[in-house]
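INTERNAL AUDIT FORM
Audit reference: QA-55
Scope: verify that the stored structure record matches its stored sequence.
Auditor: D.O.
Record contents follow.
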Amino acid sequence: MRVLVIGTGAIGQRHIRNLLEIRPDAELVLLRRAGAPRLTFPDRSVIVDTLDAALATSPDIAVIATPSSLHMQVLPALIDARIACYVEKPVVTSHAQVAELRRALADQPGVPHVTGFNLRMLPSLALARETVANGVLGTLARASFTAGQWLPDWRPSQDHRASYSASSELGGGVIFDLSHELDAVRSLIGACEIVSSATAQISSLDIESDSVACIVGRAAPGTLVTISLDYVARRPIRRYELVGDRGTLIWDLPLQRLELQDQAGATLLAEGGQSFDVRQTYIDAIRSFLGSALYGERPLLPTLEDGLLSSELAIAAHEMGSRP
């Protein structure tokens, strides 16, 4: 099995480790830009600096882990070559890129491309989806999705001001970086329309991308949704609260708790352990991708088309929040 990995930053390196853990015999083709920092890779790796050179090696599958705004530099050619792709989230960062990608996918249907919204694979969130789908909460009135963490703590070995997150041009900024929350809206509640969005910068971070966002949406059949995102919280926050007329569901990743509250009291549905193991979702995501791309198994990750819908929410919120 020959795997093309495009982008060898932190997330690309994580995918490489996970690929080799699952398939130690994998042959790696690594597409890196000329002048990229020197790194140590497995002995069998082939390193190239152009997409043509990468495609000449005839990879079986591809993992795209470059900054999101650069995905379209490589995706159309890979789709045209019918190479199954694992694309990091968000898939793209503009409506024009969405349209171009949809045209490319329409021209080459039937290839199992997936999007790296790996949090969908958390057992606790799967249980939350099941709880909502089974009508346990009744009619949903509102839902809130909150996520944040002090940006310099994300990658302590790197100056956050030089990171992808700090650059709007590369597709950074808190809305795109924390697009898991917009995907969670869709996976837990369903289709959603962005009604309003406001963004701000925090001077102490010294970055030019947005570092705070407050978004309001409306999901069918009228559920009000708020999404609050930031690079500022000194202790990590990732908490979802869904309020219905029969019960309230609270999912809290740092506390590792999924709780159902209703008239009878509170019931703990999941706590700690594998139910909240985010690291394992990266391994499970790659394993699922290999199964769908190589063996025709049903993908557990969202398809690329599905991932585009979540990316469109992020794009809409970003554009609305950027208006003067």
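Auditor finding: record pair retrieved intact. The chain has two domains: 2-118+283-302, 121-276+309-321.
Action required: none
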